[in-house]
Specification:
Shape: elongated
Structural class: alpha+beta
Helix content: 40-55%
Largest sheet: 7 strands, mixed
Strand content: 25-35%
Mean pLDDT: 81
Distance between the termini: 179 Å
Radius of gyration: 58 Å
Low-confidence stretches: 647-665
Length: 665
């Protein structure tokens, strides 16, 4: 009995120890599961929650602690409602009847990604429930997406690159070939992947030498630009510029080449080289001296032509200041200093300066100077092109002397003409006066004819002398204009009144028209304006046999203090050819000898008229058609004047020009 009790006591003690160990093991297991970085949940066969950890509650935001959901079903805490896929958990349970489900990816409505593991657990060959593992892999999925986007972006950039990009492995097999490589070499990507790069882009005859070059100087070809011959799929060879970098990935070495087709660059370089050589030859051999100085005015370069001009050898002037060598007068030194300041300001110029060459001879140089810039646009000095113009200068001096002599002779002629005109006109006026008195005497018919002819001849001679005197004054610059208030309308009427008898004699209609808005008075020289009108209307009377002559005055522009006036004289006379109209203002020029004999004249009237119009800063224009008539328009800008209303207006007449009406053409 005692033995039996002792045995029972021992068994009870052993069970207590075993239970304690089991309890301790279970607590350790729960603690371990609770600290996993996954949400863990265990269900019994009826779907009631047997165990879960805090991370599960955090993942599904239950707002409960694990002990509060023990014994509940998943449907009660609405776990399925978190997922975008309907009845997700039931589907997973169905899938795990035969095998466990691992790494099932599910997206929640709040844009998280959960990785789900599920399997059934059994004890004593009997299913005792389900175990769920939920891991939040949102960051991992996001990073994978970003990585994929980055890879796609890198692929796009490489395909869009202007340069060909080719990647090879350690044995030279092509593993990457971008779009530009397809364009440059003519091979499509699917044609070259796996091919050896040497056999694909290097000409066959260059392969061995290139391999030897790489083998001998392997490090030197990396991370720098080198130029090599290349070949296209078509067999066309061309120059390429290639840069090679190396990188390692998964313990393998790869090489990435960046390749540019430099055919066009080489062509341009060759062309520029030829042009540079051509220009160098031109500069070296041209007859113009070229000199280049730095910012300190120290000679850096001189061509042979400059040495020929200056008398120095190149070695004698390099490093010297050109002003110290060639300039010897203070005023010329100041001129050179001003030119240097212009170069500092970026201004080019041309100037002439006297210099002394190596032999001490005085020479004249014409210098075209310009600022000199480097490739970056920085001012580094100046360049001068020098031309020896000594012979031209001597010729200019001789020409100036001849010009001075000619001007002196011309002035002497003008003085002589003016003096002679004055000396001749004085007695001629007396003769005209005597003839006028003689006309008043009782004369026989033959005597009257002789006196009338003498009167007309003397007055014609006086008109010629007056014209010569006017043209002499104009050429010598001694002709001046009077400025006073006058009525333009009265001046025009004076001319009409003076010439009306001649118009009536030829049965011509002579009349005038005025703009109503023409000012009542202007400032100017009325005598010269009447002289112009007298010449123009007189010519119209001379060359018009029938019809009319009109003097029209119009206002073209009206301003507060000035008016722009058009004086137009039109006739229905014989007109003139266009060729003569273009030359009518030449002195002593007439259309032909028959007209000169028929109508007379000296050919000075229109020349004087044009010069007078120019003195008034006006313009004169002629339009004429043979046998239809002529229109002469004068445009003047005159200041408005003022005339007193009660002042008697004195008509200005030209008595010395009018008798006999011998008009100047």
């Amino acid at each position: 009995m005692t033995y039996s009790f002792s045995k029972v006591l021992v068994n009870a003690q052993e069970r207590f120890i075993i239970k304690s160990n089991l309890t301790q093991t279970l607590e350790l297991l729960k603690t371990f599961i609770s600290n996993l970085q996954y949400g863990i949940l265990m269900e019994d066969p009826q779907g009631r929650i047997l165990f879960t950890n805090e991370l599960f509650c955090e993942i599904f935001k239950t707002n409960r602690i694990p002990s509060e959901i023990i014994g509940k079903k998943l449907s009660e805490i609405k776990i399925n409602d978190h997922f975008k896929e309907d009845d997700l958990l039931e589907k997973i349970i169905g899938e795990s009847q035969d095998q466990k489900v691992m790494g099932r990816l599910a997206e929640t409505w709040d844009r998280r990604f959960l990785e789900i593991d599920h399997f059934n657990f059994e004890t004593r060959n009997k299913q005792d429930g389900h175990i769920w593992k939920f891991g939040d892999v949102t960051e991992k999925i996001t990073n994978q997406g970003l990585l994929q986007q980055s890879e796609q972006r890198s692929q796009l950039i490489m395909d869009s690159a202007i340069n060909a990009i080719i990647t090879i492995n350690s044995v030279g097999e092509i593993i990457f070939w971008n779009k530009s490589a397809e364009t440059i070499f003519g091979w499509q990507k699917n044609e070259v992947i796996g091919r050896n790069i040497f056999e694909t882009i290097i000409p066959q005859k260059k392969v061995e030498s290139y391999k030897n070059y790489v083998a001998d100087e392997k490090n030197s070809v990396l991370n720098r630009q080198i130029q090599l011959p290349a070949i296209r799929k078509s067999g066309e060879e061309f120059p390429m510029e290639i840069s090679i970098i190396s990188f390692q990935q998964q313990e393998q070495e790869f090489y990435c080449s960046f390749i540019q087709d430099i055919s066009e660059r080489k062509r341009i370089e060759h062309t520029m080289k030829l042009q540079e050589q051509k220009y160098r030859n031109m500069i070296a051999n041209m007859n113009l001296g070229l000199l280049e100085v730095d910012m300190n005015e120290v000679i850096q370069y001189a061509n042979q032509s400059f040495c020929n001009v200056s008398g120095y050898e190149v070695e004698e002037i390099l490093g010297r200041n050109p002003a110290d060598l060639f300039i010897h007068h203070e005023k010329d030194v100041e001129l050179v200093k001003k030119q240097i300041q212009l170069r500092r300001s970026g201004v080019s110029s041309v100037y002439q300066v006297p210099v002394k060459n190596k032999a001490g001879e005085l020479r004249w140089w014409a210098i075209s100077g310009a600022p000199n810039y480097d490739d970056k646009g920085n001012l580094i000095g100046s360049i001068g092109i020098h031309l020896d113009i000594t012979d031209q200068k001597r010729l200019e001096e001789d020409l100036q002397k001849q010009k001075d002599k000619a001007q002196e002779a011309s002035k002497a002629k003008e003085v002589f003409l003016a003096t002679m005109s004055h000396e001749i006109r004085t007695p001629l006026n007396a003769i005209i006066g005597f003839l006028r008195e003689l006309e008043r005497q009782k004369l026989s018919s033959s005597q009257a004819v002789l006196v009338e002819n003498s009167t007309q001849a003397s007055r014609h001679l006086l008109s010629i002398i007056n014209n010569i005197l006017d043209i002499s004054k104009i050429e010598s610059g001694e002709m001046s204009l009077e400025v006073k208030d006058f009525s333009l309308k009265d001046s025009i009427n004076n001319i009409i009144n003076i010439l009306s008898p001649k118009a009536k004699q030829k049965k011509l209609k002579l009349y005038s028209q005025y703009s109503p808005d023409m000012a009542s008075a202007f400032k100017g020289d009325p005598l010269r304006i009447e002289q112009i009108l007298f010449n123009l209307v007189g010519n119209s009377l001379k060359f018009t046999q029938k019809g009319e002559i009109k003097v029209e005055c119009r206002v073209l522009e009206d301003h507060p203090s000035t008016q722009k006036i058009s004086l137009m004289v039109s006739d229905t006379g014989i007109g003139m050819s266009k060729g003569f109209a273009d030359k009518i203002f030449k002195k002593f020029y007439q259309e032909d000898e028959s007209i000169a004999r028929r109508f007379g004249g000296t050919g000075l009237g229109m020349a004087i008229t044009q010069e007078l119009v120019k003195l008034m800063h006006g313009k004169i224009n002629i339009e004429s058609e043979k046998n239809k008539g002529t229109v002469i328009q004068i445009t003047l800008s005159l200041y408005k004047g003022f005339l007193e209303q009660n002042t008697d207006k004195k008509k200005i007449t030209l008595p010395l020009l009018l008798p006999g009406l011998k008009f100047c053409s």
